[in-house]
Structure formats: C-alpha cells, structure tokens
Amino acid sequence: MKKSRGRTGRRRRRKHSKSFMDGVNCSHKLEYIKLKKWLKERGFEDSTLRPAEFWGTGRGLMTTKALQAGDLIISLPEKCLLTTGTVLSSCLGGYIVKWKPPVSPLLALCTFLIAEKHAGEKSPWKPYLDVLPKTYTCSACLEPDVINLLPIPLKKKAQEQKKMIQELFRSSKAFFSSLQPLFAENTGTIFNYSALEWAWCTINTRTIYMKHPHRECFSLEPDVYALAPYLDLLNHSPNVQVRSS
C-alpha cells in the first residue's frame, strides 16, 4: 500500500505529530490503571490529569482542562508518600533503630526500595514500583569511558556522583548483612551495587522536598526526602516556572 503523499496525507501526519507533541494519553495502560486504583484506596482522587508521553520531554502528565496561573494541579494525601516514616513502620524499622552508627535517611529509603522491589508481588508498593524506570541515564550510571568524553564540568559532576554511590555501597555492606534474618536469599545478592545505584537514582531524580523532624535512629544528614507516586510523573519544559508546596 502506497503512503499518501497528497494534502490529506500531510494533514494526517501534521495532526499525528501535533498530537504527540501535545501528549499521547497513556492512562489505558495496565500499570497506570493499577497505580490509580492503589492511590484511590489511599484517599487520592483526581479527574483532571492523565499519564502521557510527550515529544521532547518523554513521560509526564497531561491535563484534561485549561489551567490558569496559580491553579492547584495535584494534591496527594500524605499516606500515599514514601518517607523515612514509611521505612521505620516496615519490617526494616527495628534493624535501623538498632544499627550503630546510625544510617542516613537516604540509605534507609534506598534499602526500603531495594527490599520492596525484591519482594515483587508481595510488596504493597508494587503498583508504584511497576511504573518506576527500570534503568536510569543519570551521569552517575555512565561507563567511565563515556564519562571521559563529557565536558570537564559534567565529567567532574559525574565522577563525584559515581564516587558517592560507590562509597555508600562500601560503607553499607555491614548494615545490609544485618538484614539477613528478613530474607531467604543472601543479602549480598539482593543489596548489590546495581540495586543500590537504581535506588539512589530513583530517589535523587524523583524525590520531592519534605522536611521531617530529626530522629535519633538516623544520622545528622537532613531528612528531606519524600517519594510521591503519580505526582512524580509531572514533567515540564525547561522554559516554564513551577512551584510545589
């Protein structure tokens, strides 16, 4: 069948291109249906935002109505958030409280993500985990030979981030081993470097700022992380200004 080369074909292609730039609705996909159902069970109600794929910025949320400056886009109940409080309420909590020296809030969240991902179908957070990226293209994830090709400022930043993850992994091995009673498999195979790298990138690319009171069971590093399912699908052009509260 010959491809249409006339005016009608051009209109159709322009319409398809514009549709993709405006956003292709992805709310029919099973992973998003399950995520919305899971969030609704936790008190989240939304009728104006839809998961979508955008040309240029990738995955995001599209609105079904016109928005005005200052409009509230999304409001997520606190029980939907994944914070250090969530971690302490889990089976990991007792191990974190007893561990000395105290783990950082970041490590606590990384550990929780890895453990829940390993739990698979048994994890109550599975609907959220299923929509998280499987891999990341953060500079910290690049191979050394690729990092060496970057401009000097980016190269330095990438090397710093990679070193941070490597040091976090090295210093956390004993803590990970202490969790062995919780797992049938060896913790060394569960909490490996690639798993920690994935968790670290998940938190550092998707977290929203939410300050929490300091708890004695954590190190003195600021506890300011919160993962917000669905809200973290929000994406935007680099030319706009946004504010969260």
Q: Your description of this structure?
A:
It is a single chain. Helix 5 (105-119) packs across helix 10. This protein has a single domain (24-49, 75-233), classed as set domain protein methyltransferase, domain 1 (Alpha-Beta Complex). The protein has helices at residues 7-22, 30-40, 84-89, 93-98, 105-119, 126-129, 144-147, 152-178, 187-190, 193-206, and strands at residues 24-25, 49-54, 58-63, 208-209, 225-226. 44% of the residues lie in helices and 7% in strands. It is built from ten helices and five strands, in the order H-E-H-E-E-H-H-H-H-H-H-H-H-E-E. The chain has 245 residues and is mainly alpha-helical. The strands form two sheets. Strands 1-2-3 form a three-stranded antiparallel beta sheet.
Briefly summarize what is shown.
The protein has 245 residues and is mainly α. 44% of the residues lie in helices and 7% in strands.
